[in-house]
Amino acid sequence: MATGETGIGNKGVDGVHGNGSVFELDGGMRKSLVYGPVTSRRLGLSVGVDMVPFKVCSFDCVYCQIGRTEKTTVARSDFGLLDRIFEDLERKLESGAKPDHITLGGSGEPTMNLEIGKIIRGIKKITTIPVAVLTNGSLLWDQNVRDELSAADIVLPSIDAADQETYQKINRAHPDIAFDRFVEGVISFSHSFGGQIWVEIFLIKDINTSDAHLAKLKQLMEKIRPDRVHLNTAVRPPAESFVFAVDQGDLQAMAVKINYNAEVIAEYKENRGTPVEKKDLPEDTFIDVLLRRPCTTREIAVALNTNEKQVTALADKLVAEGRIRSRRSGSKTYYLCKADSDSPVDSC
Fold first, then answer.
1. What topology does CATH give the domain 18-266?
2. Which pLDDT value is given to residue 338?
3. pLDDT at 337
4. Listed residue (42, 146, 46, 32) closest to 103, CA to CA
5. Low-confidence spans in the chain with pLDDT less than 50
6. Is the CA virtual torsion 228, 295, 347, 53 positive or negative?
7. What's residue 18's pLDDT?
8. Which 3 state secondary structure label does DSSP give 285?
9. According to the model, what pLDDT value does residue 27 have?
10. What CATH number labels 293-339?
11. What is the pLDDT of residue 8?
12. Cβ-defined contacts of 268-272 (< 8 Å, 24+)
């Protein structure tokens, strides 16, 4: 396997591995590396692809919806997943799934997979559905990573800070990825990539929302020149209890201040036919999605084009059995995997 230009290569990651017909997690088992469809406020109806074992990531973001990263890493590996991803995706599409995008992301940082370029090209041989990559952007300073992502249709990096102090406070990056290195990588990629770049800025009340910081974020966007800038805030339960959402009205005002194609991420717009009550709503499908992200019953029902009452009944059953938990966030109830006693939120 090729290695990164500063020695990031196939070192493997301790304590996580794929084995047999299930993908082992800390606290759960994924029966498929392809999940959904799920509703995405940025990408519409999306089929997700898990590229790495659970929480293999270079960041430990305070707002992460699947909990803390126990140990950040910059060690890339192939994880032996390539053939399984293709098989699972073909099975998912043959089952009738019709997503707007195939999204590489899941429960870790997808660019940690050394075979991400092969996976993107392989998916394009299976389907004409556009391929999107959700990334924290932390490895874009590596020329190999930039080359591997070149086959994607859309790359969505996250940039939540405009200086080292705020970057470390929010993203808690691996020590090898200083803020300047991170930013230079995103800028280099944005100037060479032939597809669309949609930057997400996750805004946290009283951490990266001052006028001075928004002005620096604006300057940064002018250097990156993304096609879109999406402003997001804490909608789902975050990893840390001190993460507070920004009000929608304030988000709109902040979009004006950042200015560079900035827009507040809107709620997913439903565009489906009459919901169909399914004879059998598979528990595995429900849990498979929750292993990657907390969801409301409404989101699951829309994604599966089924009756919300049916989804709610299944959620209540799984809660009663102790297999999942519910948690309020704002005005909504989200369903999550079993609680992690070391984290202030529930996580898989």
1. TIM Barrel (3.20.20)
2. 60
3. 74
4. 46
5. 1-29, 339-348
6. negative
7. 31
8. helix
9. 39
10. 1.10.10.10
11. 43
12. 268/39, 268/40, 268/41, 268/44, 268/299, 268/302, 270/302, 272/302, 272/305
